[in-house]
Amino acid sequence: MNTYKIGTRGSLLAVxxxxxxxxxxxxxxxxxxxxILIQTQxxxxxxxxxxxxxxxxxxxxxxxxxxxxxxxxxxxxxYKDLGSVRPEGIKLAAITERRFAHDILLIPQxxxxxxxxWKGEFIVGTSSPRRIANLTHSLLKFLPHLKHLxxxxxxETLRGNVNTRIKKLREGxxxxxxxxxxxxxxxxxxxxxxxxxxxxxDGLNYFILPQSIFxxxxxxxxxxxxxxxERNDNGKLAxxxxxxxxxxxxxxxxxERDAFKSYGGGCHLAVxxxxxxxxxHFLHVHxxxxxxxxxxxxxxxxxxxxxxxKKKKIxxxxxKGEREDIVYDEYLAKIxxxxxxxxxxxxxxxTSKHTIPTLMASHxxxxxxxxxxxxxxxxxxxEHGVWVNGTSDSLGTQxxxxxxxxxxxxxxxxxxxxxxxxxxxxxxxxxxxxxxxxYKRVPQKVSDSFSLRLxxxxxxxxxxxxxxxxxxxxxxxLKDAQHFCGLGKTWQEFQKAGVNVTxxxxxxxxxxxx
Length: 514
Prior knowledge:
Layout: E1 3-9, H1 12-29, E2 32-38, H2 41-44, H3 61-68, E3 74-78, E4 90-95, E5 103-108, H4 109-114, E6 122-125, H5 129-138, E7 153-156, H6 162-170, E8 176-180, H7 181-189, H8 193-201, E9 204-208, E10 223-228, H9 236-242, H10 247-262, E11 270-278, E12 281-290, E13 293-301, E14 313-316, E15 326-328, E16 332-336, E17 347-350, H11 356-361, E18 369-372, H12 375-383, E19 390-391, H13 398-403, H14 407-412, E20 420-425, E21 433-443, H15 448-454, E22 457-462, H16 465-474, E23 482-485, H17 489-497, E24 502-503, H18 507-511
Parallel strand pairs: 1-2, 1-3, 6-7, 6-8, 14-15, 14-22, 17-18, 17-20, 18-19, 20-21, 22-23, 23-24
Antiparallel strand pairs: 3-10, 4-10, 5-8, 5-9, 11-12, 12-13, 16-21
Helix pairs in contact: 1-7, 6-8, 7-8
C-alpha cells in the first residue's frame, strides 16, 4: 500500500476540502493519503485586495514549487485560483464535480429588519472586482425598501479566510458580505469545520445571488487537482485521480475559462462568467465591466436558432409590454385571489406576481424562507418589502431542489429540506412541495383587431404550454408560426408533450432574432 502526499493551502477551507478529497480517494483506491500544509503568499497578505498587488498566482506559486520539487505527489486547488497559463512540468489530473457555484450574500437578520428605516449607505464586504461591478450595478433592486429610500450601495475591502470574513460581518464592519456558496458548503460538510461555522451563521440570513445577474467567477465551485507531468509510476496515480473527473463540470468550466482568457484574465478582471449545461446545450452568462464598458451577455450554445421573418409580427405571451411592434397576450387573463394560508415557519416558493396577494394576506414575514421563480418575481417581492432568499432563475426547479439539501443553508434554516409551500395557479403541480392555488387562468373575449393582428404573427414566445394549447385551440392558424419558450419548466413541458419549440436564453435573445 502506497502513501501519497497531498499538497494544500493551510486555510480551514483548503484543509477541509482537501480532507474530503483525501477520504474519497482512500475509499476509491484503498491507498493511503496524507495532507502537507503549504503557506501561500495569498494567505499571508490579507490587508489588500489581490488585484492591487504586483505579481500573480498568489494562491498557487508555493504549491507549484513543492510539486515540481516532488515534495508532494499532487496538489488540490480551488480551480478558480488557477491561472490560464500553468508552469511547465505540471498537468491537470482531475476536475471534481461542482455543486452550488453561486455567490451568497450573508446578512444579519437584525439588519433586514432595519431596512425599512435605513439611513446612509449600505456597505457590502468583498474584494472581488467582479462582485463589486455587479453588486453596485444590480443588488439594490433585490434589497427591500432601499431603492425607494434613495440608498446608495458601496463595496469595501474584505479579505481573510471564510470564518474571518463572517466574523467581521458579525462585528458590524459591514452590513452584508458576499462569499462563494461552495466554500460554505464544504465547511458545513467537514467534520470539524462545521462546528465553528454553525456558530458563525447563527442569527444570519442570506440571498443566493442569481447567476443570470450575478454570475460567479469562471470555474467557481470546482476543485482542480494537479500532478507532476513526468511522474514515473506507470500511470497509477493518474488513474486513481482520474476517477474524480466529472464530465459535465469539465464541459462547463472549460467554456468558462476560455471566456475568462478571452477577456484578458487575471484577478483584476471584473466580469462574472457562468456556463450551465441544460440538456445537451450550454447557457452562457457574462456580466460585469471591461475597461469601463458594461458587459451583459446571455446566449444558448448548441442550439441552431432560426431567424424570424422580418415582415411578420411576433407574439409574446405576457399580458402587456411597451413595444408597439409586438402582439401581447389579451386572451388569457390571470385572476389573482387573496386568502390566508398557514405559512408560519415554512419555505414558500412564489411562482408569479399573481400569488403575491395571498402571500401578503398570509403575513409573509412569518415564513422561514421565501423563494421566487425568477428575478422579475424577486424584484416584485422586494417592492412589497419581502426579503427573498433566492430564485430558480427561470430555469425550472433543479437548482432549488439542490439548495434544499445544502448543509450550509440548513444551518440557517433548519427545515429547508422539508416540503415547501408552492404558491401558483390552481392546476399546478410541483416537485418542491404542496401547491396552494392563488390565481386562475381565464380566457377573455377579445377584439376583432386582436385576432387580425395574430394572423400577421410569424413567431410566438410562450410562457406556458397551457397558453400554447389554449391559443392554438382558439386560433389554429398559429400552428404554422415558429414557436419559442424560455429554458425552464415550460420547455420541459413542451419536450414531454413532443411539441417542436425552440428555447431561448432570454427575452432579449428572442427579440434579437428578428
